[in-house]
Amino acid sequence: MPIVEPAPWRHQYFNHVACPADVFVPADDPEAWAWNPRHAWVFDKLQLALSQGIDAAPHGLMPTRFPVFSKPIFNFRGMGAGSRVITDGADYERTQTPGHMWMPVLVGLHVSTDAAVIDGRVAWMRHATGLPTSGGMFDYWTIHAAPMPALASTITAWIETKLADYTGLLNVETIGDTIIDAHLRFSDQWPDLYGRGWVAALIDLYANRQWSFSAETRTDGYSLALFFPHGQNHRHPPAGVVNTVATMPGVSSVQITFHEDQSPEAHSMPPGGFRVALVNAWGLAQGQAARELLKQWFSEAQ
Hints:
- This protein is an alpha+beta fold and 302 residues long.
- Helix content is 24%, strand content 27%.
- The protein contains 7 helices and 14 strands.
- The chain has helices at residues 29-35, 45-50, 89-95, 149-162, 198-208, 239-246, 284-301; strands spanning 3-4, 25-26, 57-58, 68-72, 84-86, 100-104, 110-118, 121-132, 138-143, 168-175, 178-183, 221-228, 251-256, 274-281.
- The strands form 3 sheets. An 8-stranded antiparallel sheet has the order 11-10-7-8-9-12-14-13. Strands 3-6-4-5 form a 4-stranded antiparallel sheet. Strands 1-2 form a two-stranded parallel sheet.
- A hairpin with a 2-residue loop joins β10 and β11.
- α6 packs antiparallel against α7.
- The radius of gyration is 20 Å and the shape is globular.
- The relative contact order is 0.14.
- The mean pLDDT is 94.
């Protein structure tokens, strides 16, 4: 499986699609960084901000105004680790951290966008939005069938200007019209919700520098997270339980998103909770019913 995916719970999306042995597709940031040296600068969140003319700097330089949003300049573990709002100068002096940066606190819709890019030109794009709860957690994400023309125009212009010679999948996260994160790979949480044939088109892009995916119809999809409080030890549900949930009406797939043989502290998780599972579904109510069944099993297994 030359699609290099470190999370075993996501192999289900790729192991059924043939991929040439000499074609390697990154599904996570470390490989995407290593295999794209010319474009790896996009993982530098400070340079990403400066590329858009945003007022930002590393810790050690006093912000020009408060509040500011602080985060690591590089974060290959994900899940918003180390991010926080700094309210004033005294707070800043107390919390300065090597390797962190500050930028304005942005407002607006938080969107994750996947784009297929060929020599800096966008061949396909899909947007997703998350419903946040607290502590960096999300209840669920909606993978939208409908386009977002204004946002697409902003992202496309930035790609054409800053990544003119890049070919591959690109994921960007935006708040309002500002790109806050960029990744030289796709969102591996919900490739099944993009439609039949999407993974084959992904491989074709990296193998032949062409985009061959053409979904006849787009359908909204939902990726629902199941969190529990930190400090608990969890075990994986039996295969029969997972299969029961995965075959419920409207459910596309189930991911048990932790390593049973590792301590909870070894996982990168948001401060608000420990994520044990994801349910991808074509209907929100159907996904919620499936998640509730998983929640019941995990609660009773404690």
